[in-house]
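QA checklist item 7 of 12: single-chain prediction sanity check.
[x] sequence parsed
[x] length recorded as 70
[x] structure emitted
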Amino acid sequence: RSLAANPSATPELLEHLVSSNYDLVSHSVARNPSAPQDLLERLAEDPYAAGTVATNPSASGDLLERLAED
């Protein structure tokens, strides 16, 4: 989990960590301000991680609007 929360983690590493299918890891990646938009978009589809994506300062306005509608 600490790797998933590390703001210095590369997008490739974050992608790999999310593919592990561990909810706690996905939650940590969703919170990571270095997570790329496409990964945040994918995590927003996960009911477990969507609320955390909404708190990510790097989430785009469009993504936040979509999350607010759900």
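[x] summary fact logged: The mean pLDDT is 93.
[ ] second reviewer sign-off
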